[in-house]
């Protein structure tokens, strides 16, 4: 292994910079040249590839977003498009590739690893925590902290005005962000795609809270279920309760990464390069029970992402 390239792809996540820093520095520490590919797979095709030195990744461990940039580039699903991108790596003599991103980025990485003799490793970078083979993805913890901060603030105003609030959080089809933020934020109700619950039950908890004198109710809604305006409208129509809503949106993607995300990024970035040096390819790294692990891309896609429904039960018992 002489030259390793790294790219960030898909939805950005806090901690991607710390990941790139770890990849670049681990490579250089081991006598390997490091290259950054700008704008994800799009930049790979367009040849936006630059050699990086240790100093190029200085002062970024604390920064949100990704200095390499990211891009949505659906054309990459076309094998002919990938051929051009692979040729660009070959021209530079790159023999290892690290892809930081979510599910879609992994699909691109898996396709590449089958079509080229450049060894490829994926690192889970997404706030959604929706990737199999790892307990946590890079960015999840920071997004949770952002959501908790928002819940606390909304709670202040909800309490002053004795209001019911619906807070819509990201997560695509996964309920991880909603579930953990709902528990840590002390919400009355959590609505996630993985656990079907009737609106009747949700409202009965709101009424229960009201009956014991609670001045506000907070319902955390995962975007994968429905939108906050839709839910608010249903509650208004069916129960006559005038709810307010907040859609947290892209603030969840930004901000300085938390200590946990910086640590995870540093460990996984380092581990990805160690795997490349050991000759591994076609694998995604992750953390399970605080141990670094790797899984074949195929296995990551075969498994179905689930949330810990015991936590859902905890949330119910604590929101009485
Ligand atoms: P994320 O990685 O956060 O899930 P996307 O789903 O947008 O984000 O995927 C990121 C990029 O990965 C896409 O824009 C595309 O370039 C590439 N990609 C996604 N799916 C595939 C696929 N089936 N084959 C090849 N490349 C893909």
What is the rounded Rg?
A: 21 Å
Number of strands: 11
Q: Structural class given helices, strands, pairing?
A: alpha/beta
Strand content: 15-25%
Number of alpha- plus pi-helical segments: 11
Give your account of this protein's structure:
The structure is a single chain. The chain has 320 residues and is an alpha/beta fold. Helix content is 43%, strand content 18%. The protein is built from eleven helices and eleven strands. It has helices at residues 16-29, 40-46, 79-91, 103-115, 140-161, 176-184, 199-211, 228-239, 259-277, 297-302, 309-318, and strands spanning 3-8, 33-37, 49-52, 96-101, 119-124, 164-169, 189-191, 217-222, 244-247, 283-288, 291-296. The strands form two sheets. Strands 3-2-1-4-5-10-11 form a seven-stranded mixed beta sheet, sandwiched between helices. Strands 7-8-6-9 form a four-stranded parallel beta sheet, with helices on both faces. Helix 1 (16-29) packs parallel to helix 9 and helix 6 (176-184) packs parallel to helix 11 (309-318). The protein is elongated and about 70 Å long. The N and C termini lie far apart (57 Å). The model has no long low-confidence stretch (mean pLDDT 95).
